[in-house]
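Incident log, support desk, overnight shift.

02:14 A customer reports that sequence design results differ from what the structure should imply. Their input is reproduced verbatim below. On-call engineer (initials T.W.) acknowledged and began investigating.
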């Protein structure tokens, strides 16, 4: 693995927490800032997406992505590491990365506009215990009567990546690699990694939380089951971005699940009120 140093400047106020034990130490830091993160009566993310206890029923939530080319900027000094944001978060109806539309089994349709993209190395969500090399999380804001809601309701779409020496470069990731130090906005197209056709792929769905303090609930997660393959050069970039950076102390920038499976009844998996569904058209 090629070793190189990449600096991410972290703001002073964010120095109170890190990923040294992947979130395990947040419980002992004793401030209300972290109180939700270890309240096991709450729905906390990430979780292991286990196929042994997954629920499949008639009340599925189907999602339909519609992303397009958009201008983004790098959020400097973000304690989560590399984060891309729309160029103007105060005018999301004009400046967004595209949308997803969800339809539930009872016919209710909801739309969400994408506004931020996070890069986790290694992945936060695991599938049957397997932690992928990279997880990209696309966050969306709930649209209410045609306008973006500033409440805590969010939806995240996650894509997992692993190493394949024979894989071709992922064009979306390569554009990120070439522009991550850019001081000016640059163009990305999320449809390159989440095309409309993914609607027919199997994916996991559950209600959880943000994976960093405040660990806010009211976040629903859609995680594509198929793990994409990328070459070593791209895996190395994101690995070194966090593992060779003093702030992340060589541990990456991912939180581990605080849950163990409690019980299974009628093929339903419970993580203290979390019900995991696997959905496929």
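02:41 Re-run completed on a clean worker. Output:
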């Amino acid at each position: 693995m090629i070793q190189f140093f990449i600096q991410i400047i972290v703001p002073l106020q964010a120095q109170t927490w890190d990923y040294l034990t992947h979130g395990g130490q947040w419980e002992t830091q004793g401030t209300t800032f972290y109180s939700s993160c270890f309240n096991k009566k709450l729905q906390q993310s990430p979780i292991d997406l286990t196929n042994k206890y997954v629920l499949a029923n008639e009340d599925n939530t189907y999602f339909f992505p519609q992303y397009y080319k958009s201008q983004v900027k790098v959020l400097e000094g973000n304690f989560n590491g590399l984060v891309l944001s729309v160029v103007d978060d105060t005018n999301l109806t004009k400046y967004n990365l595209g949308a997803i539309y969800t339809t539930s089994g009872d016919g209710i349709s909801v739309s969400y506009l994408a506004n931020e993209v996070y890069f986790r190395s290694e992945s936060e969500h695991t599938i049957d215990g397997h932690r992928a090399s990279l997880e990209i999380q696309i966050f969306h804001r709930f649209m209410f009567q045609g306008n973006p809601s500033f409440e805590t309701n969010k939806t995240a779409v996650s894509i997992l990546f692993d190493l394949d020496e024979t894989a071709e470069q992922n064009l979306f990731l390569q554009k990120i690699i070439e522009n991550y130090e850019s001081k000016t906005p640059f163009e990305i197209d999320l449809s390159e990694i989440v095309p409309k056709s993914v609607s027919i792929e199997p994916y996991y769905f559950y209600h959880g939380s943000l994976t960093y303090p405040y660990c806010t609930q009211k976040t629903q997660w859609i995680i594509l089951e198929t793990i994409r393959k990328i070459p070593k050069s791209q895996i190395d970039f994101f690995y070194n971005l966090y593992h060779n950076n003093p702030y992340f102390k060589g541990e990456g920038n991912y939180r581990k699940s605080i849950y163990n499976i409690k019980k299974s009844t009628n093929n339903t998996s419970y993580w203290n009120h979390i019900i995991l569904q696997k959905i496929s058209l």
